[in-house]
Amino acid sequence: MYKLILRPIFFLFDPEKIHHFTFSMIRFFNKIPFVSNIFKSIYTVENVRLERELFGLKFKNPVGLAAGFDKDAKLYNELNNFGFGFIEIGTLTPKPQEGNPKKRLFRLKSDSAIINRMGFNNGGVVEAVERLKQNKGVLIGGNIGKNKVTPNEEAVEDYKICFHALFDYVDYFVVNVSSPNTPNLRELQDKEPLTRLLQTLKDLNAKKVSPKPILLKIAPDLTDSQLMDIIDIVKETKIDGVIATNTTISCEGLTSKNRTETGGLSGKPLTNRSTEVIRFLAEKSNKAFPIIGVGGIHSVTDALEKIDAGADLIQLYTGFIYEGPKLIKDINKALLKE
Asked: Catalytic amino acids?
């Protein structure tokens, strides 16, 4: 029903406006008695063989929702009814910020892709914490970043603020230094500043009674040499894993009319490159750390390829928008047949 009826209607409207409208509709329907249970019965696949244990956490299944969809932790309880094994909120920054000027979200229909230049638009970490206090048992990842006005030399302080604020309300952390939509943010992926940032968070984490897993989200545009640096940094700082990958700035091979819009590209054009990065990290590190695979998962085949390449868990975003919630169920059912 989604691809035949709902998606064609949704795709008639501005992507950002329809995103907020869809949130309102999902929230509305889930307030109706028994509707949330209906969603669960349609989309959720429960089986002990789908469970995954990584960095001290138990995931009910390996299919998660990537950061960026529920930036402000407004709908994670309702989205969980679509069968996700975990949900990542954010990217959150210490202070609220509007992000980049609109229009900043573009569908590339013929490429089954999206270009965004949102710019970490969010209401700030404090507001998100208040919503996370209403968690009804959803396994939550907290994706954190820096404010646009914060210079890179002071970026560590922004990540520390988010870490302290979210600590009691998320199950794992994701350090986002790979978005292309905050000026100079990707410079923090360089070996020296990235090592310093991750080591600072690891040291703070070590002081906690029950430390939380810390993961790094990387760009798909890194060279092999830079990926080797990532492997070295993970080994040196002993963080818990890597999320591969964020959006790409490459527009190679696109056919849609709006393919020249600036921003980060997600969707099918990213499928192969993100899988290549996963395989490179897994092979070159001798699978020394867990990997969450994300980027261009639009089918069961895409999901299985990422797992075969070395991903322990996977995340959806653009594929969820184009294919609908049935994709989550289809992937989990396929995994049970493996």
From this structure: 179
